[in-house]
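A reminder before we start the practical. When you read a complex entry, don't treat the lines as separate problems. The point of joint prediction is that each chain is placed relative to the others, so the output describes one connected object in space. Small molecules and nucleic acid strands, if listed, are placed in the same frame. In the example below there are two entries. Take a minute to note the order of the lines before looking further.
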Amino acid sequence: MSLNPENIVEIKGLVKRFDDRAVLDGIDLEIPAGKTTVIMGGSGCGKSTLLRHIIGLLKPTEGEIWIDGENVAGMKEKDMNRVRRKFGMLFQGSALFNSMTVGDNVALPLREHTDLPNEIIRIIVKVKLELVGLTGFESFMPYQISGGMKKRVALARAIALDPKMVFYDEPGAGLDPITASMIDQLIHDLSRKLKITSVVVTHEMKSAFRIADKVVILHKGKVLEVGTAHEIQNSKNPYVQQFIKGEPEGAIPFYQTSDAYLKGLLET
Amino acid sequence: MRDFFGKIGETSAFLFAGVGRLFDLFASVVRVVVSAFYQKKVIKSEHVFHQMVLMGVDSLAIICLVGSSVGMVLALQAAYQLKLFGAVIYTGSLVSVSMARELGPLIAAIVITGRVGARMAAELGTMTVQEEVDALTTMGLNPIRYLVVPRCIALMVMLPCLTVVADVMGMLGGFLIGTIGVHINPYLYLAKNFDALVLKDIYTGLSKSGIFALLIALVSCHQGLSVEGGAEGVGKATTQAVVISIILIIVVDCLATAVFYYAIPT
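Here is the predicted structure of the whole assembly.
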């Protein structure tokens, strides 16, 4: 199985079934190295599930997931942990460890995965926090800082080990528009300054088009459309148009047709 | 009738699946502990010591209180019955033997289940719900190594220690009631207290408490890590952890006593 060296992640025929329900239904996807790829789609289209497969929290029913030249589908946990050191992940709810200070949170991957002395780790933590604009917050506890700051600390933690790529799960969720755009700016800066591959899962249009080099639209567990932000905005696909304009009626109907409604009522 | 047997089948399948998952977790814990012998930085001592303080040192007061109360009750009840046979002086023997063999380990384990088991389940459950456990996994840190193993080791060290405290406090409670309440000569009470005790009483009690500690830690961590669905899930897991731990403690106590006193020749 050859892999295009320009792609850091390649997914081939990924299928995931929970019981009999296929959440991911044959996904083929390429994520180019050093670029920002945004995965979009409505709620329940499988975008978070796709991300959880890439980072190895879920195992696929079928298909292959190639990360940096290695197929991680069906990989042993020990080998997977080695692959995991190549990426960082920003969770939707930040997932900071509440019993540790901000500084300890950022230092954790360094303490666990390297033999660096404490003084060096302290310096790295300082640098990482500075990158996300939180100089001097080392001794704060996570509950003492705001949601946006938590996201930034989580980002500092995700890049603590200088990963090749960072995954973001809904980075703007639950934040005010200004904070959300600050996070977007940060994602953009990180990929530009540190040459990190970014994969962002979101359903927020504005933020997606602001940062994306490549946009992937998922619908019902399948890839619906792939292209640059510009190509997606000018897509002819009615689903894509309805999605990016955020209209309740369109290719995906809000109301059922009267026949379908009647049929649904009489079933049971 | 069919429903009835169906229900029985369903419940036992559920039960066996639960026991199976517990053994799975146990096997993973053993693997981590074994790998700690030939790899460095697998188990960090500061994590274990931190848990030991939280579990053991902080539980000392409540164990003293409960242990001495149980000893006193035991002495009161024993003296009342033994008086009928004119054997009140054996109160001390009865208290010391029953504390060391059964009540010390059992009471300490049950108090610790409520105090530490519930805490573990709720803590790990909240961490699971808030994706902290997933975050650990994505950082390449095995949650079993990082969260479960330090708790198991800490509890397996601390519960036997707390059991010794409960034993001693129980005997002390018995001594107070025996001497002040029932007016037994203090020297006689102490003599009877220690005459009846043999080494086997102590070590069977302590080995039982070691097993209880492992059960509490495994059940509580397992419940915590398998939480689904927010605050309600955490509440359910906490209750389940306490209920399952207490049931298992009593069942295993029964089995262990049978093995120690009937299967193994003295």
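Discuss with your neighbour: The interface with chain A takes residues 41, 127, 130-132, 134-135, 137-142 of chain B (CB under 8 Å). What might explain this?
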